[in-house]
Amino acid sequence: MTHLFAADLVKAEPLWRAIEQPMALKALVAIVGVALIAWELWWFLGRHGGGVVARESEAGVQEITITVDGGYAPSRIRVKAGQPMRLAFHRIDPSGCVAQVIFPDFHKTLDLPLDATTSLELPPTEAGTYPFHCGMNMVRGVLEVE
Amino acid sequence: MAPLQRPAPDDTSPMSDPSASPSCCHSDGMAASADGMERELARELTQLRRKVSVAVVLTALVMLSSLPHMLGVHSLPFLPAWFTSPWTQLILTTPVLFWCGRGFFTGAASAFRQHGADMNTLVAAGTGIAWLTSLFSTVFPQLLIAEGLPADVYYETTAVILTMVLLGNLLEARARGQTSEAIRRLLQLQPPTARVMRDGHAVQIPVSQVVVGDLVQVRPGEKLPTDGVVREGSSWVEESMLTGEPTPVAKAAGDAVIGASMNRSGSFTFRVSRVGGDTVLAQIVELVRQAQSSRTRVQRVADQVVSWFAPVVIALAIAAFVIWFLVSGNPVLAMLFLVSVLVIACPCALGLATPTSIMVASGKGAENGLIFRSAEALETAGKLRTIVLDKTGTLTRGQPEVTQFERLSGGVVPADSLLALTAALESRSEHPLAEAIVAYATRQLNPGDLPAVAGFEAVAGRGVQGVIAGQQVLVGTPRWFPELGIDTAALQPLVERLEALACSVAAVVVDGRIEACFGVADPLKASSEAAVAALRRLGLQVVMLSGDARRTAEVVAAQVGIERVIAEVRPADKSSVIRKLQEQGEGLVAMVGDGINDAPALAQADVGIAMGTGTDVAIAASDITLISGNLAGVPAAIELSRHTMANIRQNLFFAFAYNVAGIPIAAGVLFPLTGWLLSPMIAGGAMAFSSVSVVSNALRLRNFRPTPLPVAAS
Question: What interface predicted TM-score (ipTM) does this complex get?
């Protein structure tokens, strides 16, 4: 099959022509490619850090500030079950995509004005993971209640 | 429904229901925040428009500059050599990439730091790689030529992709603005000022300064600033924008009026009962926003896919590069496949597929007086198989009147005393029939001379008893008396006759003797028959649920065209009736009720539909609330749900199919078979088109109109 392709390619436009490459270079490209795929998947999909634990205020409210800039920093937030929490979103990213943050399990949408901090208060909640995301569902974070 | 979003009916602790937090938003605040978002959207649009204009001009120049190369000729007579030079193309393309497309790169970079990959990552990587390759062959052309490769540049590809993606963003942002149009329109319904009586004078003040208890004057043609109760005057008020009810409603002293409704002919004064976030309008807006923030079950699947999407596409793009390099040994060819894969993939289409449809549909629902509490309610309503209608208040007006008062031959108590005894006892009861009997009795008697009752007791689903002037008096359903050992043989023919007239029967027993009975009828609503017919046309099995005697219930059911009746159900048993229907495999079961004593049944049903009067906060127990008391809203809600789910399925199918088909084509899977090779420019265009078409398809839901019902004469 490989031979067939190559024959086709040679006949095609100059750009599509096949070029004989040394075996060592082919091997190198293959190895680097596979390594790059592995690293990229680990970087984007792997677990990074155990999430940030919200601090507790004197009134028993768990508080955390989340910076919105391309993503949510931190994007994994750990809170205790059965205690109210206050999430403060500080948005510095001008992209319209992150102008809203949605907590589907709480039926809450929060509008985030640019360069301002907007707080969302949530009631005490049972243990579980509650994802949140931007208006278009591309930027995401998770609230881990334990 | 999902346990997360729905507490068990008997469990009201906030622990179990994350959505049970108190409403935090005030309508003014909401309006302000909606304004803010609108301003921001407008700013985003202006900026995008500017960027698109610059990008279009520069891209046109770059394409002209690369024209000789595209045509495969060395030069064209009308283009000077300096203009077709790669260096000119570099100068023209760089601002497109790094000024117009700056957002993609900064977005990708900050997402990268957060271990995130999204649309920006794919676009930035695709165009960045094409630009870097071109830069390399511009600066070091001899290196490529030495390898036997043409020192081609792909600046026009880079510029075209970016321009098309930007154009796609612009169209999408405009369309997204339209999805929340319904809420915006609702918020604009409220007039900015109110004419309020202060110190005996009518003064015009901003609505935000109106307080509960204020007297507000309304003139013909004016909108009502807030909710209240009419004190003086009368008029016809059009509530269609809130309730979907097409005909104006008569209002006179004592009637409740809703803010944002339109006064037609008369003038009146009303006392303010609710302001700000407590008004019906503010609650509707809040409920619609809540529904728009929730997700459907299908969305959860799409969400899973989206979170894996971009990293997987990047992996596929690298794999395409490696494979094509191994096959052809041609790095430039491999690079073009890499770029095509990166820019054709469109996670946005997947992410947008459901939420945009839900946004448009829940807004459309609100326009028709149908408030969906969550996306799941919108999803489930269309799959219903059985619909249970509560009789009182749903099919009927819920205001029963005594139409018959019959003495029994064995009775010894004079009619007047009997009415007084009955009224005295029934005035302590909260049953709707009791109210009708008291109203009837007091009309016949002098007011204020009811005797005192001792030992009052209400027996749920049976009746009431007490001792009046030494006599043991019972008022209740004839079914109760055999249980107490009272002979009802003489009563039977009378009961049968009254029940055949669709009356509920309450009998009066004094000292163990049946004295008389009342026939109480509850007139049907004008819309009931047509609505039941519409539900059957939609393929639903319609069941009537009633606490009345079987014969009475069957007569009412026959009048509206319902064949299946579950009668003689006590209020507390309604929810177990629903559970039984669910267990019998009748499909998904909806319960329609007036919300207060039906709450457990509404919660038990797969979809609870509350008939609000527009003022009730019993909305809380239901999945769907019909702001008007019109049953026609039920088939309309089901139709809207079916349209919405069809729309979501189209969107998801398109988005999945597009990506599943597009990515392999871009990766060159078809090349060995057909010689087809997707130009990266076409890949970029397809991507921009795909998310725009998803949003546009969702916007089609704006054209939804419920099938009109034939209007029955009332």
Answer: 0.78
